[in-house]
Structure formats: structure tokens, C-alpha cells
Design a protein that fits this description.
This protein is α/β, with parallel strands linked by helices. The chain has 14 helices and 13 strands. The strands form two sheets. Strands 8-9-7-10-6-11-12-13 form an eight-stranded mixed beta sheet, sandwiched between helices. A five-stranded parallel beta sheet has the order 2-1-3-4-5, covered by helices on one side. Helix 1 packs parallel to helix 2 and helix 4 packs across helix 14. The C terminus is likely disordered.
Length: 393
């Protein structure tokens, strides 16, 4: 089965195994087969469609090729096919204006249908977003090792600290993915407006305009995406809607901070796989430290890209107040180094929650604010070092 849309069109196939499509769904097209080096602007000149065989390349090389495509002013439609589709690569690919993925094995009818959909899409003029400006959004995920570890508070303070690094208004987006009972909006004294469940399975309807309808502005530089309390939200919200919302947010902001649910959902690993940093927040109790170690190992295995979650110890306090483990003892229980620690300041945290807003607004001299700033400076500074490969959201 072939598609008339390809008659006489130039199709660039990245991967020699795709040459067999010339007698099937690519019949009538001018097919050229090449390697990842063809994804540069010169190699893509006048290409009407790019098909990439994900199974033909190592994930890091493939991710670099997709990032090269994303940097182009007007990349052609791109279809990624294969039986092994790395989540980081897929997340980067779906940032393109016209792209799709097709998991193998597939029939000629399925690939023809995917191509038809891509070719029928019209390229639209780019809007001024973080991706369009040449800088891919940086995405950090925050999750608690146990309930009540303070992950939401830390996520809010991280997002607030990142606003100081932003270069324009609406630069940072904080997304509460605890869809059923997230507390981010309540902590900030904001009104949650994100209603992904209303979209059902129609996640492809989400674009920049719709995303802004879901947004709750917190400050000129900080936007919040949070859902009203709904016990059925996880069951009513499709995986496609969540992932499409995340990719659209990453196209629109410089920084995206995810407040992740502690328990895994159908989209959890894909969301984490597209993040630059994954932070696991733990208290200094033995059960919490054991849970943090187990959760970090689970995420590392599940994401499978070589990225390692970083553990942050929350509510550090002087030992004079009880038999809390020291940092060294905590790291021994974790069997790894902690990325950093955040001091305990119950009064500052409680005051901010009751007043509505980040701790840095109501108690700017709190040790929590200082410790989070140190954490953010360390993570953002490490990303900015020459030669460090960026993992796009």
C-alpha cells in the first residue's frame, strides 16, 4: 500500500533497513537512504519527509540526531519507527511541530496511515517559545520517597528560585502531576484550572493556546498547571493527554518543574525519561531513606537511559532535637551520596502555606530558601558546564 501524497516527493530514510519500504508504502517517492549525519540542514535540503529507524542506532546518537532536527528553523515531517523506542528520544522528537512514532511490528497500511497524517499537516509559523529561540526547555522532576516528605514544598521553592534565572516573563512553569489530590495550588493560594480529564483520549488537541487556558499565573515569571481535586482524575486522564501537555509546556517555557506523584502511572517513566534532572526528596528517617534508595533504583532501571535520580535530604535538623541520622549516616543508609540537604524550618513553611505563596516570599531569610538556592545553583551550574550533554524535556 502506498500513499499518493508521496508521489515524486523526496523521502530521506535514516537506516538501511528502511530501503525495503520503497516497494511498499514509499512507492513512487524519491527515496534516499543515509545515516544520522544526514540530519543536518545540508543533508535535509528539500526533503519532504524523514523516516528514522530507531533500532539502527544507539540511544545517545539518536537523541543527538533528533536534537539537530529540533534546532532547524523549519524541519520536515519526521516519523520514528522501531521495536525499541527510547523514551528520551521520543520525548525530544515529539517537540517537533510535525512528528509521529510507530512501534514495530507494523503493517504497510499502518505506516501509510502515519505518513498520510504527517504529510497532511500544514507547517505553521513558529511562535516565540523557549524551543523556537534555540534553547530547549530544561525540565526537572521532583518526587517524594514517602508521603509527607515535603516534595511539593521543595518543588515550589525550586520553581521560585529558577525565576531569578529566567530571562523573560512566563519563563518557568510548575506542573502538579498529582492529578487527583495535588496540593501545589493550595500552597500557593492559587486557583487550579487544568482539566485534562475533560479531553478524554483527545490529547492531540492540546496546543499552546489550549495550554494557556489551563494555566494559573502565580507571578509574572511563574505559571502553574494544576488540576482541581478529583479522586477519579488519574483514571479519567489519558496517557496521551499528559504527555502532550508536557511536551507543549516544554515548547513554551525556559524551565519546567514537575511535582510528580509518588506512585507510578502509565506515563511516569516517559515523563521522567524526558527530564534533565530527577530529584527524590527524603526525610531523615530510616524508612524514608530506604524508600528513597529503592525508588531511585526503580526509576534508574525503568528509565533505562543511564540517567541517575538525585536524592535530596529534607528537614535537616540539629541532633539536639532528637536521634536523627547525620548526613554521613544517611548516605550510608542510602548507599550513595546525597545531592544536597534542606534545613528544617517548620515555622517558615507553615506560615507560607497559611498565607499562600512560596517561603521565599514570606520568609526570605529562612534556611530553606538558602538551601534550595544552593541546590538550584549546583544543578543549573552543572548543566551549564561546557561539554555537558543536555537531556531535553
Amino acid at each position: 500500500m502506498s500513499t499518493d501524497l508521496l508521489a515524486g516527493r523526496r523521502v530521506l530514510a535514516i537506516g538501511s533497513a528502511l530501503s525495503g519500504l520503497a516497494s511498499g508504502p514509499l512507492a513512487g517517492a524519491q527515496l534516499e537512504v543515509g545515516g544520522l549525519d544526514r540530519l543536518s540542514a545540508a543533508g535535509l535540503s528539500a526533503a519532504d519527509l524523514v523516516i528514522i529507524d530507531a533500532d539502527a542506532w544507539e540511544a545517545p546518537d539518536l537523541a543527538q540526531g533528533v536534537q539537530t532536527l529540533a534546532a532547524l528553523a523549519a524541519p520536515p515531517p519526521v516519523l520514528l519507527v522501531g521495536s525499541h523506542l527510547p523514551t528520551t528520544v521520543v520525548r525530544n522528537l515529539l517537540r517537533l511541530e510535525r512528528s509521529d512514532v510507530l512501534e514495530a511490528p507494523f503493517t504497510d497500511e499502518k505506516i501509510a496511515y502515519a505518513i498520510t497524517g504527517l504529510m497532511a499537516q500544514k507547517a505553521i509559523a513558529p511562535v516565540p517559545t523557549a524551543a523556537a529561540s534555540g534553547q530547549l526547555a530544561r525540565c526537572w522532576a521532583v518526587t517524594g520517597a514517602v508521603g509527607g516528605a515535603g516534595a511539593t514544598t521543595v518543588a515550589i521553592e525550586i520553581a521560585t528560585a529558577l525565576c531569578a534565572r529566567a530571562t523573560r516573563d512566563k519563563s518557568v512553569c510548575l506542573i502538579d502531576l498529582n492529578l487527583a489530590d495535588g496540593e501545589t495550588a493550595a500552597y500557593l493560594g492559587a486557583h487550579p484550572a487544568m482539566r485534562l480529564a475533560d479531553l478524554g483520549a483527545s490529547g492531540d488537541r492540546i496546543d499552546v493556546a489550549m495550554l494557556q487556558a489551563f494555566v494559573t499565573p502565580v507571578t509574572p515569571r511563574l505559571d502553574l498547571l494544576a488540576a482541581p481535586r478529583d479522586p477519579a482524575a488519574f483514571d479519567a486522564t489519558s496517557r496521551e493527554a499528559v504527555l502532550r501537555m508536557l511536551e507543549t509546556a516544554c515548547e513554551s517555557y525556559e524551565w519546567v518543574v514537575l511535582d510528580m506523584p509518588r506512585h507510578r502511572r502509565s506515563w511516569t517513566l516517559e515523563a521522567l525519561g524526558g527530564c534533565d534532572e530527577m530529584l527524590v526528596i527524603s526525610e531523615l528517617t530510616v524508612p524514608a531513606l530506604i524508600a528513597a534508595r529503592s525508588l531511585s533504583d526503580e526509576i534508574e532501571r525503568g528509565v533505562g537511559s543511564g540517567a541517575k535520580p538525585k536524592i535530596v535530604l529534607n528537614r535537616l535538623a540539629s541532633r539536639m532535637f532528637g536521634p536523627a541520622p547525620s548526613m554521613a549516616e544517611a548516605e550510608k543508609a542510602l548507599q550513595r551520596k546525597a545531592e544536597g540537604g534542606i534545613s528544617s524550618d517548620w515555622e517558615a513553611a507553615a506560615a507560607s502555606v497559611n498565607l499562600g505563596g512560596p517561603i521565599s516570599t514570606h520568609r526570605p531569610k529562612s534556611k530553606i530558601v538558602k538551601d534550595v538556592q544552593t541546590l538550584v545553583d549546583g544543578l543549573a551550574g552543572a548543566m551549564a558546564k561546557p561539554g555537558k550533554a543536555k537531556r531535553a524535556a
